[in-house]
Specification:
CATH topology: Rossmann fold
Protein name: Methyltransferase type 11 domain-containing protein
Number of strands: 8
Domain Methyltransferase type: 55-142
Pfam families: Methyltransf_11
Shape: globular
CATH architecture: 3-Layer(aba) Sandwich
Helix content: 25-40%
CATH superfamily: Vaccinia Virus protein VP39
InterPro entries: 23S_rRNA_MeTrnsfrase_RlmA, Methyltransf_11, SAM-dependent_MTases_sf
Number of domains: 1
Strand content: 15-25%
């Protein structure tokens, strides 16, 4: 029989945890996600070392960008969600990075051919035409993007079967990049185990990674969360698979 008090406590714990920024340390001991083999931070740091002007799109709280040892002479980051914007400015502006408030679906407020490097980790929206516009001739784009049906096992447990569209597929990314005038240099896709040890971790994850179940809230999904709690108690941690895509592209010389 379900331990209702424990279930309620876990729901409350997951619902009360802060979702500001992209610091995932709250999940230590409660959930794990395997990292892609390519090592995005290492790749980005190497590109930053040889760039003159770099743009990081949808930087979150600046957690990833702030780990880069050295920035180009001009480095700019965009973010829009107010809590993340504040975190990013605190983390990055003391190191000379300008953090600009730009909505994820809005045109970039930068002149044409401003940056020789554009990067992004887990952008929710990819504006290929804007990326191509602000890149200098020969400039490079490096991104780790969310793949199609990321953590679909978790989403389908809560919502039932759903069709996985192609809007985040590698083929779609390549087609959209080429349509914007970019040349694809590398395109890789990996499915990575994501393990949830309790339902509090599930609740916090779904509040933080909102595209997994876009209409998620605890009250709406309480019954299925109870089923998931029972599933974890009976069978052990729940395993889903994060989908990640590495995209490396460049803008041709005139």
């Amino acid at each position: 029989m379900q331990d209702t008090a424990t279930f309620q406590d876990l729901l409350r714990e997951g619902a009360d945890a802060s979702v500001d920024g992209w610091d995932f340390s709250w999940f230590d001991g409660r959930a794990t996600e395997q990292r892609p083999s390519w090592g995005y931070l290492k790749l980005m740091a190497a590109q930053m070392r040889v760039a003159h002007a770099a743009l990081d799109i949808q930087t979150g709280g600046g957690e990833v960008l702030s780990e880069v040892p050295a920035f180009p002479p001009v480095t700019v980051a965009t973010e829009h969600w107010p809590p993340n914007l504040q975190l990013a400015r605190r983390a990055l502006e003391p190191r000379g990075v300008r953090v600009v408030d730009v909505a994820e679906d809005a045109p970039f407020p930068f002149p044409d051919e401003t940056f020789d490097l554009v990067v992004s980790r887990h952008p929710n929206v990819v504006l290929w035409d804007e990326i191509a516009r602000v890149l200098t001739p020969g400039g490079r784009y490096l991104a780790q993007q969310i793949g199609p049906g990321s953590n679909r096992e978790l989403a389908q447990f809560l919502t039932g079967p759903r069709e996985i569209g192609d809007e985040r597929s590698p083929a779609r990314a390549a087609a959209d990049a080429r349509a914007a005038g970019l040349v694809i240099d590398e395109l890789r896709h990996e499915a990575l185990p994501t393990t949830f040890n309790d339902v509090a971790a599930v609740v916090h994850f779904l509040r933080k990674v909102i595209w997994t179940v876009p209409d998620f809230n605890v009250d709406r999904y309480r019954a299925r969360l109870a089923d998931l709690h029972d599933h974890i108690r009976r069978h052990g941690p729940f395993v889903a698979h994060a989908q990640r895509i590495l995209v490396r592209a460049h803008k041709p010389e005139h």
